[in-house]
Amino acid sequence: MIFGSVFSKREILQARYILQEYRLNIRVILISAILCLFFVMSIYYYQFGIGFWSDHTKWAELGSFFGGILGPIFAFFTLLYLAFQVEMQWKESKAARIESEVNNRENYISTNLQILMPKLSAIDSSKNAPMAEIILRMHRDENLDKDNLQLIKLGLSARAETLVVWVNIAAALSYLKAVDENRYLNQLTIVTVQIGQELCSALDRVVRLATDINFEHHFQV
């Protein structure tokens, strides 16, 4: 419920921003068009005067003047309005694509967590301990970065799927971090609550050593 309310608020703020920008552009176009109209009318009035003429030719000249001058001006503002419309549609489309991709990454993290949790709880027959406990032992070893790297890689090679799942989660978190900081922090909290802070840090460190995959670490202390 908490996470859902945060997401809804973000979507509402984004929609409001696009709407406010659209309204501002429309106001600018309307005000500019009205100012141009009054400017042209003022010039004509100052130069030729305007009245209720009985001569038809003067009305024709007035119509020709305004049609020739204001027609291209209003056509320009019409094109400007259409350009703003296209820009707004492009922004809305881009925001929708990003929102869809963010949702996909969040679902991807959730799916991989469901795969990862049983694997971390599974008992390793060679060590007679859960996978999570083995990774924590390695993480707590201060000499892990210097000694027995080949043994570590060999020992974890049978659990390669577990390591890959963690890399997948890290990659999805990196995308969220680049696109939406709030949703990144939400997912970071979800992963931490389900797995535990120390085990997350251990996975970051041990998976890097065991796989040599260059991925962003989100839980290193």
Descriptive notes:
The chain is mainly α and 221 residues long. It folds into two domains: 6-99; 101-211, no CATH class. Helix content is 81%, strand content 2%. It has seven helices and two strands. Strands 1-2 form a two-stranded antiparallel ribbon. Helix 1 runs antiparallel to helix 2. The longest helix is centred in the middle third of the chain and has 66 residues, at 56-121. Mean pLDDT is 79; it is low at 1-9.
Secondary-structure topology with pairs:
Blueprint: H1 2-47, H2 56-121, E1 123-124, E2 129-130, H3 131-140, H4 149-156, H5 160-179, H6 181-195, H7 197-211
Antiparallel strand pairs: 1-2
Fraction of residues in β-strands:
under 5%
Largest sheet: 2 strands, antiparallel
What would you call the structural class?
Answer: mainly alpha
Distance between the termini: 29 Å
Shape: rod-shaped
Write down the Rg: 32 Å
Task: Give a count of the beta strands, DSSP E runs of length 2 or more.
Answer: 2
How much helicity do the residues have?
Answer: over 70%
H/I helix tally: 7
**Count of folded domains:** 2
Give, in spatial order, the strands making up the sheet with the most strands: 1-2
Low-confidence stretches: 1-9
Overall residue-averaged pLDDT value:
79
Order of helices and strands: HHEEHHHHH
What's a concise summary of this model?
Helix content is 81%, strand content 2%.
For this entry, give a set of tags.
2 domains; two-stranded antiparallel sheet; mainly alpha; disordered N terminus; 221 residues; 7 helices; rod-shaped
